[in-house]
Design brief:
Elements lengths: L4 H14 L8 H14 L2 H4 L13 H17 L14 H14 L1 H13 L7 H11 L2 H11 L2 H16 L3 H12 L9 H13 L5 H23 L6 H8 L15 H16 L24 H21 L5 H19 L9 H11 L3 H16 L11 H22 L8 H8 L3 H12 L2 H4 L3 H25 L11 H9 L3
Helix pairs in contact: 1-7, 2-4, 6-7, 6-9, 7-19, 9-10, 10-12, 11-12, 11-15, 11-16, 14-23, 15-16, 16-17, 16-23, 17-18, 18-19, 18-23, 21-23
Length: about 500
């Protein structure tokens, strides 16, 4: 079978080009403003400039990335680089920014290639083809980057390059790439415990004696810290301003649209209790990013979310530390997924887009183990659906539903091709997944027939957030128990041997 990887790259690129004229969110203006700031102002003004409400709040490497793009942008339309020119979106600006996302996705392509190779998947195997499809045509990245507008593909490319290097036991190279990633977007800090434990256990502590261990630790520290020195060094006088922008704890517990996590359920429970008890309090669904206080339930502060996140990361990290070397790559991937999921479920002011930190690494596990694939499918149904509120424009209804349904159908088909004896899902899991059909039915039909679209305009958002949260929490609990070795029914965990078999596939 011919290697179809680059054919799929071409298909994905063509699809992204077709989406260039699509609606874009305020994130488009965010990045245009960052282009202007980094191009027009000196370094010491980047993290204090506040002409626009969309201030620079990514780490310095990303700021320099915007500066680099601005060196090309000045030849396309210099007016997009004026700080005072708010909400500027000429046709040239739109095409430049859209194409910049597509071009920088080359890093993502390289990351996908690296990870598939590190898993030992033969290029003519069904697993390699399926992995290429699931990652290169990932519907979440199409939604968030190529319609909504962001640069997540480029960033996830760095993550995949780091994962691929780690699985290949190129430890220092992996640590360096991951440290670079953190200085592009600090949200990936939530995945750092998995990388840290793996590197400590299987690089530092695997050395033959104390001297070698100490030397390995020094090397790892030097390689890991050097990107931080290069990134933050030029801003050493503005570090308070930089960290103030990177960690804005004055934002509320939840975003304007609640990410489908534990706090969405918590907010809903508070609202229901306030209604039953007829208690009035501050709103948690005003559509604004603000600090809120719950009406009945205890108000949650940032330290609570931090402690919960750390507590729920610990079990899988302990298992990773104790795992034998032969099983460590698989346990590491599950640790990445569960560390990302812990932060998504319990983190402070989580954006709905952060579910991609769980879903994209999970694509790799889908290829090598039947049970991982089963859980991945359930989370995919809930997680990708939860991104719909990002694409709220009526013109996007057909693209969002068609892309979503095509992707989940493709995923389901690939599961049966990879795992011939795949038996699917329990009855309650099927009922839950099919239940997502009722949300668009209500939003686009019943709400109008029952005249609820004006009385309860927030209800479709609430239903999407809460119903998807049920699936995310189910995945988190059930998959965590499975990853720790608590299974029911027949065992399905012959993953290491399945990877070895695929390496022999011709």
């Amino acid at each position: 079978m011919k290697d179809l990887f680059w054919h799929l790259v071409g298909i994905a690129t063509g699809l992204k080009i077709l989406l260039i004229p699509a609606y874009h969110s305020t994130d488009f203006e965010v990045h245009r403003n960052w282009l202007a700031i980094t191009h027009s102002l000196p370094l010491d003004r980047w993290y204090v400039e506040a002409t626009s409400e969309w201030t620079l709040d990514y780490p310095p490497f990303f700021a320099h990335f915007e500066w680099l793009l601005s060196q090309v942008a000045k030849y396309v339309d210099p007016r997009m680089l004026e700080v005072q020119n708010l909400n500027y979106e000429s046709k040239a600006t739109v095409y430049f920014q859209r194409l910049s996302v597509i071009v920088t996705d080359l890093v993502y392509v390289l990351g996908v290639r690296s990870c598939l190779g590190s898993l030992g998947l033969a290029r003519n195997s069904q697993q390699h083809f399926a992995g290429s499809m699931l990652l290169l045509l990932n519907v979440g990245l199409l939604f968030v980057d190529h319609i909504h507008f962001q640069y997540n593909g480029f960033l996830f490319g760095l993550l995949l390059l780091s994962i691929g290097s780690l699985i290949r036991q190129r430890f220092l190279w992996s640590a360096f790439i991951f440290a670079v990633l953190l200085n592009f977007k600090h949200i990936f800090l939530y995945l750092a415990p998995a990388f840290g434990v793996y590197l400590l256990r299987f690089y530092c502590l695997e050395q033959v004696n104390v001297v070698s261990t100490s030397l390995a630790f020094v090397k790892l520290l030097a390689v890991g810290l050097s990107p931080f020195v290069l990134s933050l060094g030029p801003f050493w006088r503005q570090l308070p301003e930089v960290f103030g922008r990177l960690f804005p704890f004055k934002r509320g517990l939840t975003h304007a649209y609640w990410a489908p996590n534990f706090w969405a359920i918590y907010n809903t429970a508070d609202k229901v209790a306030a209604g039953v008890l007829k208690v009035e309090g501050s709103s948690t669904s005003s559509g604004l990013v603000q600090e809120v206080r719950h009406s009945v339930l205890p108000t949650i502060q940032p330290p609570v979310t931090f402690v919960l996140t750390v507590i729920f990361m610990l079990p899988i990290l302990v298992k990773l530390f104790r795992s034998p070397k032969s099983q460590s790559p698989l346990v590491f991937l599950r640790s990445v997924v569960l560390c990302g999921c812990s932060s998504f479920v319990f983190g402070w002011h989580v954006h709905e887009k952060a579910i991609l930190m769980v879903l994209i690494p999970l694509c790799l596990l889908t290829l090598v183990n039947r049970e991982d694939a089963r859980y991945a499918y359930i989370l995919s149904i809930a997680g990708y659906f939860s991104l719909f509120p990002l694409l709220f424009d009526a013109d996007l209804y057909i693209p969002r539903y068609s892309l979503y349904l095509s992707y989940v159908a493709m995923l389901y088909g690939q599961l049966y091709r990879i795992f011939p004896n795949f038996r699917g899902f329990h009855a309650l899991e099927w009922i839950y997944m099919l239940g997502f059909l009722t949300i668009p039915l209500y939003e686009h039909l019943l709400a109008f027939l029952l005249h609820l679209d004006k009385r309860l305009p927030f209800l479709p958002l609430l239903l999407t957030s809460v119903y998807a949260a049920l699936g995310v929490l189910y995945f988190f609990g059930a998959y965590y128990l499975y990853a720790l070795g608590f299974t029911w029914g027949k065992a399905t965990s012959s993953s290491s041997s399945s990877v070895k078999r695929k390496r022999k596939t011709k």
